């Protein structure tokens, strides 16, 4: 039995931070960082059955073209992702009455819809990118037992050396079937989705090589990491994807992170209409969810 100090359940039988009851969560989940982006997604639902708000976690659960979907905001960073993923898993895989893990486990499908900056000149602003792999430059996985393949360990070591950090970055892949489906572009679609290798950073400024008043520890950081591994170019930077993929691997959930590229760090360009880029990604994601042949 899981003690009440370890798994906190609110008096209304909802999970502590998300404030959700098990029946209020769909098996298909879209996550967004910005709480204001939740209604930008749910406005397209045919109906909304649940609206829950606590802290930065806002949840709308509803129906889109016959598919039940929850959209949840997380705030920024893998620390929030760890809370979200643990509590989502508990909602479907822990019996709240007995506080015991269920014998039959449920695998959720979780799709991050977020923004990112390209670190390749060939990936312009306005591109939509699916993170085939993610590299965690945060230290979240220093606290979990995440198994890494030999190839993942080799990539981690090279990035560690190039970035000049004292910890081991972690490498995790998205669900292969989801990657293939969401990057299967048809000739009649004006919007295309490419695959990439995403660097997840524990901050927005120095951890991503930006300099305002404070100088990053590593000079020419982007050039030292983005093309240094043969066959594994890093394509973009953001702050959550690796945390999602690692927690998904540990808990047995199907994960995919989709990115609207709003900035190109090499050409120093930023989108003139970021909301339009995000809306394109939202619409693309919803349509791809409804056309996936297997049951999520």
Kindly describe this structure.
It is a single chain. The protein has 296 residues and is α/β, with parallel strands linked by helices. It has a single domain, classed as Rossmann fold (3-Layer(aba) Sandwich), CATH 3.40.50.1580. Helices cover 26% and strands 27% of the residues. It has a five-stranded mixed β-barrel. The chain has a two-stranded antiparallel ribbon with strand order 5-6. β12 and β13 form a beta hairpin. The two termini are 29 Å apart.
Can you describe this structure in just a few lines?
This protein has a single domain, classed as Rossmann fold. The protein contains seven helices and 13 strands. It has helices at 38-42, 78-93, 150-163, 176-182, 221-225, 241-251, 274-291, and strands at 28-32, 47-54, 57-64, 67-73, 94-95, 100-101, 109-118, 128-136, 170-173, 193-200, 236-238, 254-264, 269-270.
Features of the shown structure:
296 residues, 26% helix, 27% strand, globular, Rossmann fold, five-stranded mixed beta barrel
Instruction: Characterize the main sheet.
Output: 5 strands, mixed, barrel
Instruction: Label the structural class.
Output: alpha/beta
Overall pLDDT, averaged?
94
The CATH homology group name:
Nucleoside phosphorylase domain
How many structural units, i.e. domains?
A: 1
CATH topology: Rossmann fold
The helicity comes to 25-40%
Low-confidence stretches: none
| Strands in their spatial order, largest beta sheet | 7-11-10-8-12
The tally of beta strands, per DSSP, is 13
Number of DSSP helical runs: 7
CATH architecture name: 3-Layer(aba) Sandwich
Percentage of residues in strands: 25-35%
Report the C-alpha radius of gyration, rounded. Answer: 19 Å
